[in-house]
Amino acid sequence: MDDTDREALDAIRASRHLMVLTGAGVSRESGVPTFRGKDGLWNRYDPMELANIEALRRDPLTVWKWYNWRRSLIHKAEPNPGHYAIADLEAHKAPGFLLVTQNVDGLHRRAGSRSLVEVHGDIFREICTRCGTSREAYDVYPEDLLPPRCDACNGLMKPGVVMFGEPLPREAMERTVAFMEIADLLLLVGTSAVVYPIASIPFEIKGRGGMIIEVNPDETPVSPIADVVIRGPAGGVLPALVGDLARDG
Ligand code: OAD
Question: Where in the sequence is the domain holding 193, given as residue range(s)?
Fold first, then answer.
């Protein structure tokens, strides 16, 4: 174990209220593409044409084809050692623990995380834009059934994710903010930390005197204020870290 790992371990052990904040990078090793950076989806697609509530209204078929394609990728994906390590970390630290994820792939849930807030929603849910009825749809649609319609009112269904132009779900934000206000340590994993309001969390926690550990192969806007930076993939770094936590008591 090097000095950086030791510092991270000591901080995790000492923390009373640990928030873990994850982004697309944690699912990269499960085969789910990230949005930014090398091979990122936003290099090939325009977020304003796809992950956008106005675009859904204007061109529901194009938007649904894209979410349906992402569902097909996620459908095939399995949680990786990074997801499992975070679930183990919860077992060590709960109840002083909350995982906040921007991911909509459900892989944290499938790895066993329970103290979990999915702030950007769940790609396998659907909500009617007319009557608000919601349902779970674990399948990928045949293209001729797109865009899906509501069983109750035949309104246009929307993927159960937060799109640009929409507020974050109120209950999820309230839980996140309440824990953020007491968090003394933030473990930031696999997020470029540029999408607000979630991107403000590291600065809020730091401003209240909390510590930050960042796990990411690349630099982010949070790196300069992080107390410990571990440059590497989540699926390699986290199992080693959480394994050491279990071994050393
Ligand atoms: P991004 O794609 O913006 O960032 C992914 C981050 O993961 C980058 O900082 C990478 O360096 C890092 N990364 C890549 N591989 C990794 C690995 N194996 N282990 C750890 N880190 C790795 O994804 P998010 O920050 O999640 O929102 O993006 C935030 C939001 O922007 C998403 O929820 C989505 C997107 O637009 C909406 O669609 C509303």
Answer: 1-32+78-120+167-249
Kindly tell me the sign of the dihedral angle through the C-alpha atoms of 79, 196, 184, 223: positive
Q: How much is the pTM?
A: 0.97
Give, in degrees to the nearest 5, the angle at Cα 188 between 185 and 189.
Answer: 145
In tens, the pLDDT along 15-70 reads: 999 999 999 999 999 999 999 988 899 999 898 889 999 999 999 999 999 999 99
Two tokens, residue 104: 């909509």
Q: Is the pLDDT of residue 103 over 80?
A: yes
Residue 249 clears pLDDT 60, i.e. is over it:
no
Ligand 1 binding site (Cβ under 6 Å of any ligand atom): 23-26, 28-29, 34-37, 40, 47, 51, 102, 120, 162, 164, 190-192, 195, 216-218, 220, 233-234
From 17, 83, 108, 120, the catalytic residue: 120
Distance, CA 190 to ligand 1 centroid (Å)?
Answer: 6
User: What CATH number does the domain containing 17 carry?
Assistant: 3.40.50.1220
